[in-house]
Amino acid sequence: MNILILGSGGREHALAWAVQQNPKCDRLIVAPGNAGIAQIAECADLDILDGAAVADWACEESIDFVIVGPEAPLAEGVADTLRTAGIAVFGPSRQAARLEASKSFTKEICAAVNAPTAAYGRFDDLASARAYLAAQPIPIVIKADGLAAGKGVTVAETRAQAEAALADIFDGAHGRAEVVIEAFLTGEEASFFCLVDGETVLPLGTAQDHKRVGEGDTGPNTGGMGAYSPAPVMTPQVEARALDEIVRPTMSEMVRRGTPFQGVLFVGLMIDAGAPSLVEYNVRFGDPECQCLMMRLGGQVLDLLLACAEGQLDRAQVHWAEDHALCVVMAAAGYPGSYAKGGAICGLDALPSDSRNMVFHAGTARRDGQTVAAGGRVLGVTARGDTLSEARDRAYAMVDGVDWPDGFCRRDIGWRAL
Ligand code: AMP
Ligand code: GLY
After folding, report:
1. Is the pLDDT of residue 89 over 70?
2. Same domain assignment for residues 285 and 226
3. Site to substitute for ligand 1 among 153, 210, 272, 283, most atoms within 8 A of C-beta
4. pLDDT digits over 285-296, tens only?
5. Separation between Cα atoms, residue 260 and residue 336, nearest integer Å
6. For ligand 1, is residue 280 a contact (CB within 6 Å)?
7. Are residues 370 and 391 in the same domain?
8. Which residue in 28, 163, 200, 400 could disulfide with 313, CB within 3.0 to 4.6 Å?
9. Within this chain, do residues 278 and 222 fall inside the same structural domain, yes or no?
10. 207 CA to middle of ligand 2, Å?
11. Which of 280, 289, 416 for mutating ligand 1's site (highest number of atoms within 8 Å of CB)?
C-alpha cells in the first residue's frame, strides 16, 4: 500500500514509525512532515488544509490510504473531500469533527443521552456570560468555544481570573467570541482512546498527559509536556463505565443524527471515586499520548486504522503487551509563550532508536546539515519498559543525552502514577 499521513508533529512521527513497521506498508509519505520524519518516510510539501489539493496529489501518487493526524484538516472537511474522491481515509467527517471543534456541540450531544459531564452555560455576549458567572461557585472553568490548540481553557481559582478570561475571549483572543462556562470537576484526569467506525467502538488504550508547563502540574496549560500509558486510574471498571455511560451512547447519537463518527475518539475524562465524567472529546490522537500508544502497539496500528476506515472494527482485535511507555516533551525556552527558533540540537545520532527507545520529532527542521528547533514543542523522548519507572528512567537517560541549550523539559513526568 501507498500510505499518506497528514501532519508534522510528534504524533505524526510516532504514527509513521508504527505504520512503516507493518509489511502492508510499501511507500510512506508524510505531509508536510519534519526533520525526524524525513529519516523514516518521504516528506511532501502539501497544504494539508486544502482538501482538493491533497486529493489531487493523492490520486496522482496512487495513494491507497490517508491517515489524518491533527484536528484542523478534519474540521476543514479534508476527510470528506478525500472520501468523495474514492480514497480510503482514517479520520472523521467535518460534521463529526464538531465533537472537538465545538465544545457546545459536545455538551448538547451529552445532554441528549444523559452522559455525565460538567454543568455549563454557553454565551456569545459578555454581559450574559458575566451575569451567569456571578451566580456560580469558584473555581470555575472558562472555555473559548472553538479550536485553540489546547490554550483556550482557563481554570479560574478566583473571580478576577474568570473575569479576565471572559474579557480575553470577547476581545477576540481565540478567534470566535463564544464561551462555555463550566462547573469545576474534581478527581484525576485520564485520556481514553477508542477507535470508532460509526456504531462499533473498539477501546484502543489509555494514557495520562501533563498539560501544565511546570513541575507538580503548575503554570499555564500547554499542548502537553509529557505522557505515559497505560493510565492506572483507568481500571477495567472505570473503562466499562466510560464506554457504557459516555462513549457508546454519544456515538449512537451521532449515528442517529446522520453524522456517524469514524476515526479515533480521544475521550478526556475526569474520574472521581470511580465515576468518570467527560471533560472533552478530541477527534484525533493526543500529542504526546500518541507517542506512548504507538510505541506500545507497533505495526498492528496500520491494521487497526484500516479496519476502522473500512467499517470492519467488529472483526478487529487489539493485542497489548503488559508494558508501559513514557514520553518526555522537550520544548523551546519560553513555551507556551513566545520562544526562539533555530537553535541547534546535537547528540541525537548517539541515542538509541529501536522498539523500546525513540526520540520522536515534533518541531524540528534541517539547516546546514544540522537539526534545529522549529517549534514550541520540539522533541518527544519516548521509552518503553516492563514497569513505568523503567520506562521513565530510560526516557530521562535519553533526555540527558540531548545537547540543546535552548530547550527545557519537566523532570517529573509520570509523578502521579509513580
Ligand atoms: P479541555 O481543552 O477542555 O480538555 O481543557 C483543558 C484542561 O482544563 C483539561 O485537561 C483539564 O485539566 C482542565 N479542565 C477542563 N474542563 C474542566 C472542568 N470542567 N473541571 C476541571 N478541570 C477542567
Ligand atoms: N495532549 C493533549 C492533546 O493532544 O490535546
Report:
1. yes
2. yes
3. 153
4. 999 999 999 999
5. 35
6. yes
7. yes
8. 200
9. yes
10. 11
11. 280
72/86 same-domain check: yes
CATH number at residue 199: 3.30.470.20
What residue owns the CA closest to ligand 1's atom 9?
279
Q: Of 91, 111, 127, which marks where a domain is finished?
A: 91
Full domain range(s) for residue 13:
2-91
Domain count, the chain: 4
CATH number at residue 369: 3.90.600.10
pLDDT digits (tens, 9 = 90+) for 172-221: 766 667 899 999 999 999 999 999 999 899 999 999 999 999 999 999 88
Average pLDDT, the chain: 95
Residue 414 falls inside a structural domain: no
CB 103 within 8 A of CB 180: yes
Please say whether the beta carbons of 256 and 192 come within 8 A.
no
CA angle 145, 247, 325 (to 5 degrees): 90
In angstroms, rounded to a whole number, what is the distance separating the alpha carbons of residues 132 and 93? 34
Amino acid at the residue 289: E
Q: What is the pLDDT of residue 220?
A: 86
98 lines ligand 1 (CB under 6 A): no
Residue 342, Cβ neighbours under 10 Å: how many?
A: 12
